[in-house]
Amino acid sequence: MNKVLVISYYWPPMGGGGVQRWLKTIKYLRQYKWEPIVFTVNNSDISLYDDSLLYDVPDGIEVISSNIWEPFSLYRIFTGKKDEKINPGFLSKKKGVSFLNNLSIWIRGNFFIPDAKMFWYNPAIKTISRYLQNNKVDAIVSTGPPHTTHLIALFIKKKFDIPWLADFRDPWTNIDFYDKLKLTKWADKRHRRLEMNVLLNANKLVTVSESWAKDFLNICGIKPDVITNGYDPADFNKAGKVKLDKKFTLVHIGSLNKDRNPFNFWKALKDVIIQMPEILSDLEIQLIGPIDISVKDELEKYKLLDITKLVDSLPHKKVIKQLIKSQVLLLFLNNVSNINGVIPGKMYEYIGAKRPILCIGKKSGDASTIIKKTKSGVVVDFNDIKSMKKEIITAYTKFKNKTLQVDEKNHNDYSRKKLAGDFSLLLNELIS
Questions:
Q1: Is the pLDDT of residue 92 over 80?
Q2: H-helix or E-strand containing 40?
Q3: Rounded distance between C-alpha atoms, residue 82 and residue 53, angstroms
Q4: Which of 76, 81, 215, 397 shows the greatest Cβ crowding within 10 Å of its Cβ?
């Protein structure tokens, strides 16, 4: 059996979306005659624990690791916020933007290049080099962000002449918040130089959407292979029989930052309540995950907070049950210029749950294409309040008639087992 070294910052007991892609790939990779070895961190600054994910780690998988120093500890000392956790995706929990917050973003963008995990680079290289002196691997995979993983893999590839696949779960300089990093010209140039070095030296490039693959093609002249994220049918089988919510629940899973806050949707929902006051006795909004202060402001503005259930986070196995029992699953996309390639990882688990998706985004984007392909829901444009109201009323009518469901189609294309097979094919090409 061939061996592949997977370099991933995210690994159980860490929770969150960054863990899922390679945890689930590794779960099934042995079935395609590849034995994975995982390299990760052993003292990371974990913002979310999820011990339930440990059950997906296959028996006997070798995991090696090294220490990392994370600068967020300095931020805590500097601000006096000893218990504060890492803030995902520029999410603000208080009104206004403090000087310290602006300063921390500027420091992060201009001094921690490519990211705040840069101090993992030297310990990682030492540990991996020591391991490879006594153990043979046939290929390397790096998955980012953090893109420090790719720089580690680049060094190891050159030192040991091992073929390398670089997997971009998110873009580097084309990420939607890149312009918010307050970069100097020097820092921007360095980010782009490091990115190009990775793109031109990896033996294979992979990303998660067609639009992002085209963006990388424009950057470096090489188009990555596309392997989307997915869902694991085993997660839903383990959940067993779950009864649907008795209320008309509109459920969103995951963090909601300001760019993802669906301002027009809240207005549309309030308009429906005014038009159909009877919906109020059935309606419940559930937001599971951290939310930006702007989301709470909108809920208060439209008097929706009393019918909203806010849950900071849930273990993955509980998230699966929540998805299955929801009446409607809300998918809010980032209202940013490079929206086309944005496909939140949770969308695939929405598809796996087989509950209707109401997506507020761009009708021509990659997420829209997949929702249409799977017939798993509807997509409404960011500014189309009229259609939002129509879809809410349609869903509520079906809820009252007990006909609110989706017609399953092409779901298996996004099975984690199938996608692990896609990765194995690329690894086979690497060593052929």
A1: no
A2: strand 34-41
A3: 27
A4: 215
| One domain, residues 407 and 358 | yes
Total count of domains within the chain: 2
Band of pLDDT at residue 173, cut at 50, 70 and 90: very high
pTM of full prediction above 0.85: yes
In whole angstroms, how large is the CA radius of gyration of the chain? Answer: 22
Task: Convert the pLDDT of each residue in 348-385 to its tens digit.
Answer: 999 999 999 999 999 889 999 999 999 999 999 999 99
Residue 364: CATH number of its domain: 3.40.50.2000
pLDDT digits (tens, 9 = 90+) for 258-281: 889 999 999 999 999 999 999 999
CA atoms within a 13 Å half-sphere pointing along the CA-CB vector of 361: 29
3-state helix, strand, coil in the chain (%, to 5): 50, 15, 35
Residue 39 contacts residue 5 (beta carbons within 8 Å): yes
Average pLDDT over the chain, rounded to an integer: 92
DSSP secondary structure of 220-273 = HS-PPEE----B-HHHHHHH---PPPSSEEEEEES-B-GGG--HHHHHHHHHHH
CA distance 123 to 7: 13
**Helix ranges restricted to H, 116-247:** 121-132, 148-160, 185-201, 210-220, 233-239
User: Are 21 and 143 in contact, with CB atoms under 8 Å apart?
Assistant: yes
Instruction: For 114, list phi and psi in degrees, rounded to 5.
Output: -85, -15
Same domain, 282 and 143: no
